[in-house]
């Protein structure tokens, strides 16, 4: 039987608001197997990002987990100390968010970002880290990685920065990659290239991916299975072809009908 890498069990998240407690995520359960790509779709505000942040241990202070467990292999992440969770983040669970610019310090070169991240999590010498950084930058399709490492974030386009973020995430060979709208800010051609590279890297390294998107075209292209989230709950989960051919839930049917999506050819 396939082994689960990540298991989310009966997750309930609420936030405190001036009007009182508000439920945001309601009894969400799913699991991810090694190398599997699980898509998470749903309208804006349905709770997708909150679910990702909970897995990363990065919920903001006003949000709290009311109930549930999140297991990475055998360890319950919700029971880990903050210092241990910092080490899990990056090394075992990596994340790629929508806005790459906010992930970079503008005063530090690209090379410094990649090399320091590698050396924080693994016992590499500077030289080894530099070589690996160049390898991963090249693998995400970035030309002239050595030259690129001397540049600052503002000198790169959004698409290039997103590739750098993917290179950083994948160079640590995480067990799980959480990608929250990773290509939304890019034009269609760049989206397709980047998705292909992410797919290939995950396949090669057997990294499991939770891929969040409001774009069903992206999900159809990438995912093995899809979960549909509406108002904090998972309303349907199915293999990707099955969900597109035979959507069961009225909300899924509505999403499919409303789908402009990108045309992935
Ligand atoms: N601090 C907060 N206080 C009150 N409500 C919040 C807070 N943070 C998030 N929410 C609400 O939680 C809900 C879920 O937000 P979340 O960001 O997870 O949605 P999402 O599905 O990722 O949406 P999007 O696709 O727009 O990113 C939204 O209705 C949002 O308004």
Commentary on this structure:
This is Oligopeptide transport ATP-binding protein OppD. The protein is globular. It contains ten helices and ten strands. A hairpin with a 2-residue loop joins strand 4 and strand 5. It has 265 residues and is an alpha/beta fold. The strands form two sheets. Strands 6-7-8-3-9-10 form a six-stranded mixed sheet, sandwiched between helices. The protein has a four-stranded antiparallel sheet with strand order 2-1-4-5, with helices on one face. Helix 6 (158-171) runs parallel beside helix 7. The chain starts with a strand and ends in an 8-residue tail after the last helix. Helices cover 39% and strands 27% of the residues. Adenosine-5'-triphosphate is lined by residues 15, 17, 22, 24, 42, 44-50, 60, 62, 214.
Describe the structure using short key phrases.
single chain, 265 residues, alpha/beta, binds adenosine-5'-triphosphate
Q: How much of the residues is beta strand, in percent?
A: 25-35%
Order of helices and strands: EEEHEEHEHHHHEHEHEEHH
Tell me, rounded to a whole number, the average pLDDT.
Answer: 89
For the sheet with most strands, the description reads: 6 strands, mixed
- Count of runs of 4 or more consecutive helical residues: 10
Bound molecule kinds, no repeats: adenosine-5'-triphosphate
First-last Cα distance: 34 Å
Quaternary assembly: single chain
- Globally, the shape reads globular
Structural class: alpha/beta
List segments where confidence is low: pLDDT < 50 over at least 5 consecutive residues.
261-265
The helix content, as a percent range, equals 25-40%
Going across the biggest sheet, name each strand in turn: 6-7-8-3-9-10
Radius of gyration: 18 Å
Number of strands: 10
GO molecular function: ATP binding
Membrane topology: Peripheral membrane protein
Protein name: Oligopeptide transport ATP-binding protein OppD
Main location: membrane
